[in-house]
Write a structure and sequence with these properties.
The chain contains 15 helices and 17 strands. The chain is α+β, with helices and mostly antiparallel strands. A hairpin with a 4-residue loop joins strand 10 and strand 11. Helix 1 packs parallel to helix 9, helix 2 crosses helix 9 and helix 4 packs across helix 5. It is globular and about 85 Å long. The two termini are about 35 Å apart.
């Protein structure tokens, strides 16, 4: 378990006391702590941690399944917070709300407590649910990390640590608030007025956030001399000195570069790898920015950090850089030295560095291209904003990236278990469930890939997506592979690497197999015509 990551998540949660995203929650917690016994504040915090963790861990799957825009979730949360504020302003509504939560927590009171602990858990649970999507930029980084990882013990610990850190100041405020109320009879006798004041504060804070209030608190603000049409959008609350580019095995398109010698330029660090479909979809934007702004002071450095072993091969990366038409410097970070210097976790990831050598903006994953380009223009001192298509895509209930090696394999539907580091003759099951896959024929199975052992070795995959890609290779020659869709030769809506229902696999790279005109589903089957076909992963697009 990554204790360092969990520790940092705790500190990030603790730092939320300085962020506006916590302001709407504090009045609710303080107001809810004024009733019940001494154990109620602890119940509120426990309920908050539990539901926050559950909602965060499940957020990726819920959003994908319902095809909900994250901005919509945030707006719904703001609306619910305003509703809470209105309830706090009305004595009648407050009494009805208290009665409702009291009935729901009746099970707790029946087991021998009259301190309000279980009703506090329910109260905190409601806060955790509505607070999660609207918590702002600090929380977003944690949610992105969880959404891109599998739900392992490490990711669960990270979420719980973040929630615990965020709850510490809330608990202190709740307990201190009760202490103040108990010490001052005037305040004690005017709890209704205090509750209404807190309701006003809650509504005002939410309205402030809805009308770009986050820019006042959590974003880097403009100097008065800056061009009025540009600003740094979604900038880091606390910029940091750009870490060093170290441990590079090979440079392409440039001699070795250092952060110090690039001061005076605006630098975009792009962590990528050449077989990652998400990385490849960002390349047109990167190449366009380099063409438009390089002579104006922009430098882009692609840090090629491998996900698979073949991506450590210098010749493979050199060929990919040439094939993809990349003109900016590319550095091979095979040992993850620079990756770790930036504490990076994602492919792709962009770090924008200003002329003083500080990282002022981060973007993880695809999207927000217009934000990134406008930030580049702002740092270069170019007036006026652009409207780059965001290319944000809804993923519906899209099949997740599917790894085939035993180290990360999921949804294997075969009747026989995969056998690591040995060959085995597999047979298809009678049926393959959604997102499931199975093998047939002779395959060698390794931690990071599977390799065909003879002609006729096949793999069948059930998918939900608009596009299907596979990372494959044939390092000892070339292997022809028949491509079938729903048990028929793929001759229409085929990917760019498929011709007449067949793909010829040579070098290790990403191969385009299926290109539906719209989101769909089906069963894809690959049949190797010889031995030596390597298959690493299937990835998907919309």
């Amino acid at each position: 378990m990554d204790f360092l990551t969990a520790g940092l998540a705790f500190l990030e949660g603790l730092a939320l006391i300085l962020s506006p995203c916590i302001l709407p929650v504090l009045p609710i917690i303080l107001s809810g702590s004024l009733t019940g016994g001494k154990r109620r504040p602890f119940g509120i915090i426990i309920g908050f941690i539990i539901t926050f963790a559950i909602v965060t861990l499940c957020s990726r799957f819920l959003v994908q399944a319902a095809n909900i825009n994250p901005d919509l979730l945030r707006n719904i949360s703001y609306t619910l917070l305003i509703v809470f504020g209105v309830v706090m302003l009305s004595t009648t509504l407050t009494e009805k709300f208290t009665l409702a939560t009291g009935k729901l927590s009746q099970v707790g009171t029946n087991v021998g407590t009259n301190e309000g602990f279980f009703s506090g858990i329910l109260f905190g649970a409601l806060i955790g649910i509505i607070w999660t999507p609207c918590a702002g930029p600090i929380l977003a980084a944690v949610i992105v990390q969880v959404a891109t990882l599998k739900t392992t013990a490490s990711s669960i610990a990270t979420v719980l640590a973040f929630a615990a850190g965020a709850s510490v100041p809330m608990l202190i405020i709740a307990i201190a608030g009760r202490g103040i109320i108990n010490k001052f009879n005037f305040i004690k006798n005017h709890t209704t007025t205090i509750r209404k004041i807190l309701g006003v504060i809650l509504i005002a804070t939410v309205l402030l956030l809805m009308f770009n209030g986050e820019l006042l608190f959590a974003r880097v603000t403009n100097n008065s001399d800056d061009p009025p049409a540009t600003h740094l959008e979604n900038g880091l609350m606390v910029p940091f000195q750009a870490p060093a580019i170290d441990g590079i095995d090979q440079w392409f398109n440039s001699p070795p570069l250092t952060i110090s010698q690039l001061k005076g330029k605006v630098v975009l660090i792009d962590f990528w790898t050449y077989s990652c479909i998400n990385c490849l979809r960002t390349l047109p934007y990167l190449k366009d920015w380099y063409a438009k702004y390089h002579d104006k002071g922009l430098e882009i450095i692609g840090i090629q950090t491998p996900e698979f072993e073949f991506e450590k091969n210098i010749a493979n990366v050199k060929n990919a850089v040439a094939r993809l038409g990349i003109k900016y410097p590319v550095a091979m970070d095979n040992s993850f030295v620079t990756w770790n210097n930036y504490n990076n976790r994602y492919w792709p990831a962009h770090y924008l560095i200003n002329k003083e050598g500080q990282v002022v903006y981060e973007q993880f994953g695809e999207g927000d291209y217009n934000v990134t380009e406008n930030n580049i223009r702002y740092l270069l001192g170019i007036d006026g904003e652009v409207q780059t298509p965001s290319n944000d895509q809804g993923f519906y209930a899209q099949t997740p990236e599917t790894y085939l090696g035993t180290a990360r394999a999921e949804n294997f539907a075969g009747d026989q278990a995969e056998k690591t580091n040995q060959s085995f003759i597999y047979t298809y099951p009678t049926a393959i469930s959604d997102d499931g896959w199975a093998l047939k024929g002779l395959w060698w199975v390794y931690p990071d890939k599977i390799v065909s052992g003879a002609a006729g070795a096949a793999i069948k995959l059930h998918f939900n997506a608009g596009k299907v890609y596979a990372v494959m290779g044939a390092p000892h020659g070339k292997v022809a592979v028949d491509v079938l869709l729903n048990d028929k030769k793929l001759v229409s809506e085929q990917g760019s690497d498929v011709t007449n229902g067949q793909v010829t696999v040579t070098g290790n790279r990403l191969y385009s197999l299926v290109q539906f005109k719209q989101f769909g589903n089906g069963t894809l089957e690959l049949i190797a015509e010889g031995e030596g076909l390597e298959v690493y992963t299937f990835t998907f697009g919309n």
